[in-house]
Structures are given as structure tokens and as C-alpha cells.
Amino acid sequence: xxxxxxxxxxxFLRRSKFxxxxxxxxxxxxxxxxxxxxxxxxKVVFREGEHSATMYxxxxxxxxxxxxxxxxGRIVVAELSESQVFGEIAMLSREPRxxxxxxxxxxxxxxxxxxxxxxxxxxxxxxxIIEILSVLSEQIRAANDREFKQLISGRTLATQMxxxxxxxxxxxxxxxxxxxxxxxxxxxTAVSIMARELSIPKEITVQRAADIAxxxxxxxxxxxxxxxxxxxxxxxxxxxxTEEKEFFDISEAIRETVDLMLVSLKRSQVSVNLVNKLAxxxxxxxxxxxxxxxxxxxxxxxAERHAYPNGSxxxxxxxxxxxxxxxxxxxxxxYGRGIPTENQPRVYEPFFTTARSKGGTGLxxxxxxNLVENVLKGEIRLKSxxxxxxxxxxxxxxxxxx
Length: 402
Fold this sequence. Notes:
Blueprint lengths: L1 H14 L8 H10 L1 E5 L4 E3 L7 E7 L2 E6 L5 E7 L4 E2 L1 H6 L6 E4 L3 E7 H9 L3 H74 L6 H36 L4 E4 H16 L4 E7 L7 E4 L1 H19 L6 E11 L2 E8 L29 H12 L3 E7 L3 E9 L5
Parallel strand pairs: 10-12
Antiparallel strand pairs: 1-8, 2-7, 3-6, 3-8, 4-5, 4-7, 9-11, 12-13, 13-15, 14-15
């Protein structure tokens, strides 16, 4: 078995671009002295900032290389597979690791430490050493180029996602402003009726008193309606602009967002059924009101645009309940066109849309996925069948990690 491993690792060394300039004798030395390391899928090989004197050649599986983006999250610098190496720069420079490496599947590596590499390099001719340095320099340039492109792409996407969020908020402002016109119009009519009745000095009959009372009741109800719209919008919009945790009733926050969305949804003949399955002691949540409302806004907009296009109308069921003792489950279900099977793996990809001609940007579900996974530390599930609708389930912690 050891001889088979040695032969296998020697073959990988020969195929690796990094070791292309090494002689068979040197590769045999490395293959014999280096150790085999097995790491399960999704595990960290090493973290950014750590010190280590080891580089790795991938024999089986692969890795994802991530770096911090100046406090704004993490970006994927590269994804490597068989016969590629990582960790060589920090090993030779003795500097801290510049990235975190995570396995993308069950993996096997050939671990080559600094002392072994230096011994092999000492045995090299000057030409071989120059070739080794040239390969190392090329790898550094390629890594920097990948990182720069990923950084620019990430910043561009973040900017466009923020613009999409602001566009949704702007559309909501327009909808609320339009909706407030209705109660204000009723109030204006009721005030006109009262002014007419009271402008003529005559006996207050039972009928006149009833007319005035009816006008006052109309004013009261519509003032309440306008006040509720403004208050709901204030809570939702302020939540969009802040990223601080707050203590609030999660079911009430969902209702406020749904009520605001109904202002625009009803123009597309879309109705919403809200089902609250939380007990009173389960409703209080310390979390992000704005994130929750943004997720709902995007999912409802997605249903309006894709499930029930062109004002065809339909129903969306929203349910908030417990998944288990530790997690909430928010379900948004429609009964519209559904999502084709071939498109389902791509629905969370930025800029993927089947409705670009109708104003779709392909960022709605990408924003939802980003907020669920990176902010709420939860997961999103999709079940869909063509002509039978789509169901999105958002599962997230009742107690968010710090």
C-alpha cells in the first residue's frame, strides 16, 4: 500500500505545473518524504493569519480559497482541484497565511514541509532554481489577478444589490403615497359634507345629526388607515436603513410588510394569506427587522412577477412557525407557473432572470439568499413544479449568533 501511494503521489507531482522543472530524482525524494493528509468535505485546512511551514499538493478532491474583504465579508479567491498546489507562498516566505482554505469535497493532500523543499532546492542547479522561482512568481501574479477580479466583481455586485434594494423601497414609497390618497380623498369629502351641513344655521334634526356622525366616523376610520400605512412604512423603511439588532414581535413585523406590499400587489390581482402559528411567547425576536422585510418584499415581488405575470392574479400563502426549538421557519408559497427544473439550481445566481424584458434584474433571489445565509445565518429551501407553483422556506435561528 505505501508503495502504491508513493507511485500515485509521484504521478501527481509530475503532472503539477509547480513541479514541472524538478527532476525525477527530486520528485522521488519529495514523494518519499512528504506525508499524506486526509480532510473531510467542508473542513478548514488552515485559516487566514495562521503560521505554517507546509504546502499542499491536491491528490484527490479540491479546495476553495477565501480571503477577508476589509471587514465586508469574504470573497472566494480561487477554487483548486487535483494536481494543483496551495500554501506554497506562506511556506517559503514564513509569513502568516494570506487566506483561508476549505475543502470542497472529501480530499487527500500531499503535505510538503519547508525543510524538505529547501533540501530539494539546495540540490538543484542554478537553472532549475531560476525555473522554480519563475513558476512561483507566475503563481503569485495569477493569484493576485484572480483576487483583484473577484474583489471588483464582489464590489460591483454589492453595489447593484444595494441599488436593487433601494429600488424596491422607492416602489413601495410610490405605492404608499398612492394608497394614502384614497383615505385622504374620503376625509376631504366627509369634511365637505360636514362643512355644508354646519354652514347653514338651522335646527339639528335626527337626520342631520346622523349625517354628521357618519361623516365623523368616515374621517376617523380613514385617518386610522392613513396613520397605519405611515407607521408600517416607517418601521419597514427605517429597518431597511439600519443593520442593528432590535427586539420586536416577528409576526407583527411580517404583517406590517405584507400590508405595505398589498398596496402594490392588489393592482396585479395578487392576494396574500398570512398564517401565524407562533404562540405568544415565541413571537419576540432579537433580530434584523429590515432584513426580514427585505426578504419578504423580494419573495412577494418575485411571485407577482414570475408566478402570476401580466396581472393574471393569484394567491400567496405566508406562514411563520417554528421549525424546531432553535429555529423559525418562514414559508412563502404560490400556486402559479412554477420554476422549470433546469432553472432551479440557478435561481439564486446574481443576474439570472427569465424576465429581463419585463424589468427583472436577476438580483431579487440573489439578495434573499445572501441575506438568509450571511446575515440570518440560516438556509433557504425551494420546492417547485411547473404549473403548480413554488414554495420558498426560510429557516433561521431564534437566537442569532453574534
